[in-house]
Amino acid sequence: MSVQPLTAEMTSDLEKKVIALSSKLGQAKHNIHKIIFGQEQAVDLCLTAILSGGHFLLMGLPGLGKTKLVETLGTVLGLDNKRVQCTPDLMPADILGSEILGGDASNRSFRFIKGPVFCQLLMADEINRASPRTQSALLQAMQEHQVSVGGTTYDLPRPFHVMATQNPLEQEGTYPLPEAQLDRFMLQIDIGYPAATDERKMMLVTTGTGAQKADGVFTSAEVLEAQAMIRQLPIGQKVVDGILQLVQSGRPEQSNLLSVKKHVSWGPGPRASQTFMLAARAKALLDGRYAPSLDDVLALAPAVLKHRMALHFSARAEGLSLDDIIKDMCETIS
């Protein structure tokens, strides 16, 4: 199928929309940072994932504001948000919903009660504590944007995003996510400790009487329009070639890097390339630019690749991490 080229009139109209959207995204970031102090990179990556239409995985210790971040994103972007605390006894019906028998004695019938997955921004807290059965039920919702209960398929609201969290330290009583489900997350976003100035501000604001409130900037319909616009933004051939080179350099079978051949057990699949294509455009737009560059791709590399690669034990024995390997991969791109 051939792609229709953009005419001069279409390009001019798109540029105007990009400028307007970029300005509005600036307002959204300002409102988010009324509540979330610091964490600029994490906020930008969350917005990048939502603009790209994907799901994202937050890695961070408890108490770093992950739940507050989702609530704030929902408010600012006009998205209905809900939260599920994952535990080993959480059943698929607790997330998807279930059928119950209702009616009087002469006219009984089943009706479907929707679960928390029927929202636009779902937070699955400590997703690796859910059983594999529950994780797989969420997998269908993430991939197909619909759920099947009692032989009937129900569409989820649009847009639909899952933001899952994991505690990187505590692994007892957990069920590690399988590679197939990890690959469904567009980005892995690491949440670190706040800087001293940000923590000071947080202490003063959150323990006083005047709590800050975020204002809505977008509606859900406008978020859908923004997601459609991202796919129309131009991307240069050099950037496309750089993405392909970067992704293939992370595969032991295709890479020319000794560190990858020696230490990586499996590398990123085609979803990584697709993610780079969308996320680089979204990042450029967040920065007020019309088209992405290779710098955008390299900046996104850890978030796109870390959960799509695995190291051999030999790498850990030598003290190497995925960050080290990804850094080697990025240095080959020019």
Could you characterize what this model shows?
The protein is α/β, with parallel strands linked by helices. It folds into two domains: 204 residues, 3-Layer(aba) Sandwich (Rossmann fold); 100 residues, Orthogonal Bundle (Helicase, Ruva Protein, domain 3), CATH 1.10.8.80. 48% of the residues lie in helices and 17% in strands. It has 14 helices and eleven strands. Strands 2-5-8-1-9 form a five-stranded parallel β-sheet. A hairpin with a 2-residue loop joins strand 3 and strand 4. Helix 2 packs across helix 11 and helix 12 runs antiparallel to helix 14. It starts with 7 loop residues before the first helix and ends with a helix. The model has no long low-confidence stretch (mean pLDDT 86).
Write the layout of secondary structure elements.
Blueprint: H1 8-35, H2 40-51, E1 55-59, H3 66-77, E2 81-85, H4 92-96, E3 97-104, E4 107-114, E5 121-125, H5 132-144, E6 146-149, E7 152-155, E8 161-166, H6 179-182, E9 185-190, H7 196-206, H8 220-230, H9 237-249, H10 258-263, E10 264-266, H11 270-286, H12 294-305, E11 310-311, H13 313-317, H14 322-331
Parallel strand pairs: 1-8, 1-9, 2-5, 5-8
Antiparallel strand pairs: 3-4, 6-7, 10-11
Helix pairs in contact: 1-3, 2-11, 9-11, 11-12, 12-14
For the largest beta-sheet, the strand count, sense and barrel status come to: 5 strands, parallel
Remind me, CATH topology of the largest domain?
Answer: Rossmann fold
Secondary-structure content class: alpha/beta
CATH structural architecture of the largest domain = 3-Layer(aba) Sandwich
CATH homologous superfamily grouping of the largest domain: P-loop containing nucleotide triphosphate hydrolases
The number of helical segments is 14
Shape: globular
> Taking Cα atoms only, what radius of gyration do you get, to the nearest Å?
21 Å
* N-to-C CA distance: 31 Å
- Physical arrangement of strands within the biggest beta sheet: 2-5-8-1-9
Q: If you average the pLDDT, what whole number results?
A: 86
Quickly count the domains. Answer: 2
Encode the helix/strand succession as letters. Answer: HHEHEHEEEHEEEHEHHHHEHHEHH
